[in-house]
Amino acid sequence: MATVALTRSGFTAAVSGTGIVLVDFWAGWCGPCKRFAPVFERASEQYPDVVFAKVDTEAEQSLAGALGISSIPTLAVFRDGVLVFAQAGALPSAALEEVITGVRALDMNKVRAELAGEKAPVA
To answer: Are strands 51-56 and 20-26 parallel, antiparallel or unpaired?
Structure first.
């Protein structure tokens, strides 16, 4: 599966649905981004049931800023509309596969319960 280019207008719809969405925040001038790009592309071919998306932080500065992206490349992973992983830096293939495997194994009911607990006011 090819990667999908995301812009501010389509970002929320892309990450809020069901399933797993990996988002690579990158820029054309970024050396580590260039090294990570083929790793990301190969993974997109290995995992056709996962959405692989890219956000060009130069073209989408307001989106990157709204999400607090301060270092690139940054990989953000959403599952069923929940941000479950975010890390700056170019991952090697094995590490990216570990992230995907780990995200697949998540119990999303437990994740949502934990998130709800974090948001509950402390008495």
So the answer is: parallel
Peptide bond into 73 cis (omega under 30): yes
Residue 59 DSSP code: T
Catalytic residue positions, numbered: 30, 33
Q: What is the mean pLDDT of the chain?
A: 93
Which residue range is the domain that position 29 belongs to? 4-119
Is the predicted pLDDT of residue 119 greater than 90, yes or no?
Answer: no
| Strand partners of residue 7 | none
Distance CA 74, CA 88 (A): 4
Q: What is the domain count for the chain?
A: 1
**Cβ(99)–Cβ(75) under 8 Å?**
yes
User: Average pLDDT in the 63-82 region?
Assistant: 95
